[in-house]
């Protein structure tokens, strides 16, 4: 048994979906039957595991914990030719903050909570419990790998993985694209007694934003409708006085995207809520 296959079986037994990578950290090409997704691809491409083809096709979606598949003759050649073992972080309930240079590591140490860290060729993988969408280039030298992505297995690392923090989820909020469609800073004049906005009391505003985040996070169905109603409620309370900032809106967008809403859906819901209220 090759070392790569031994590692893959150990990962699978631990509940971590795994797959082989060839030189250059690339997945193996699809077999002829799956070339150019002629087979239709893995349904929805949102969960780990191979498609109907028994070969390791479709990149990250081939990752599996099925030891019968990993040990199968059709995977044997791939393991013989593999340069490295990879895994699907999202399928294992994990998110990786991939810090690819010294500056990125310095940033992570200053901003992110301590967690399990795995050394890489050029930097570090900061591994958290929880899943989110994968985004490359969230800042210089930093990628997020979770759902619909793969990462090299480089060992267990040091430390204990802690829950995914909001600081990481916020990195996936693409502020430039949302700003073009609907500016997040409300530029309406302040209104209130003697010209002082009562919502500038930090406790009052922060409590309102926290309650809105919780309402979105706890949604079990009709997430899009819940997001819209929550945005509407926040704007009806705070939108007419100019107290909302980009940071407040980013918190709401982050909560919505953690429930599966896209940046476009968030922006549309925010814009519709503002239009409804005449803001």
What does this entry look like structurally?
Helix 8 (223-238) packs across helix 10 (263-277). This protein has helices at 3-13, 67-70, 73-81, 102-111, 166-169, 175-181, 202-217, 223-238, 246-258, 263-277; strands at residues 18-22, 26-27, 84-87, 94-99, 116-119, 124-129, 135-139, 142-145, 151-152. It is elongated, with a radius of gyration of 22 Å. The longest helix has 16 residues, at 202-217. The strands form two sheets. A five-stranded antiparallel sheet has the order 5-6-4-8-7. The protein has a four-stranded antiparallel sheet with strand order 2-1-3-9. It has 279 residues and is an alpha+beta fold.
Basic shape: elongated
Q: Which structural class best describes the helix and strand composition?
A: alpha+beta
Strand content: 5-15%
Q: Number of helix segments?
A: 10
Write down the secondary-structure element order: HEEHHEEHEEEEEHHHHHH
Largest sheet: 5 strands, antiparallel
Taking all Cα atoms into account, the compactness measure Rg is 22 Å
Question: Keywords for this structure?
Answer:
four-stranded antiparallel beta sheet; alpha+beta; 279 residues
Summarize the structure.
The protein is α+β, with helices and mostly antiparallel strands. It has helices at residues 3-13, 67-70, 73-81, 102-111, 166-169, 175-181, 202-217, 223-238, 246-258, 263-277, and strands spanning 18-22, 26-27, 84-87, 94-99, 116-119, 124-129, 135-139, 142-145, 151-152.
């Amino acid at each position: 048994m090759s070392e790569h296959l031994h590692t893959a079986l150990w990962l699978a037994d631990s509940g971590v979906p795994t797959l082989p990578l060839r030189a250059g950290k690339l997945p193996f090409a699809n077999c002829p039957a799956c070339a150019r997704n002629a087979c239709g691809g893995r349904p929805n491409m949102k969960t780990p595991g191979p498609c109907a083809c028994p070969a390791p096709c479709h990149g990250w979606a081939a990752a599996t914990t099925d030891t019968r598949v990993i040990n199968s003759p059709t995977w044997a050649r791939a393991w013989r030719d593999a340069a490295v073992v990879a895994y699907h972080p999202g399928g294992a309930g994990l998110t990786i903050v991939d810090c690819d240079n010294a500056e990125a590591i310095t940033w992570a140490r200053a901003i992110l909570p301590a967690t399990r860290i795995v050394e890489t060729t050029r930097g570090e993988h900061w591994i958290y419990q929880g899943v989110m969408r994968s985004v490359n280039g969230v800042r210089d030298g930093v990628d997020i790998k979770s759902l619909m992505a793969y990462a090299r297995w480089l060992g267990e690392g040091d430390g204990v993985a802690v829950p995914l923090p909001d600081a990481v989820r916020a990195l996936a909020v693409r502020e430039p694209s949302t700003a073009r469609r609907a500016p997040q800073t409300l530029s309406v004049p302040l209104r209130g007694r003697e010209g002082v906005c009562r919502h500038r009391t930090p406790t009052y505003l922060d409590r309102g934003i926290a309650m809105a985040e919780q309402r979105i996070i706890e949604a079990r169905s009709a997430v899009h409708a819940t997001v819209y109603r929550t945005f509407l409620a926040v704007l009806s309370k705070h939108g007419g006085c100019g107290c909302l900032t980009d940071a407040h809106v980013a918190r709401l967008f982050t909560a919505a995207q953690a429930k599966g809403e896209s940046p476009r859906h968030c922006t549309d819901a925010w814009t519709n809520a503002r239009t409804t209220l005449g803001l």
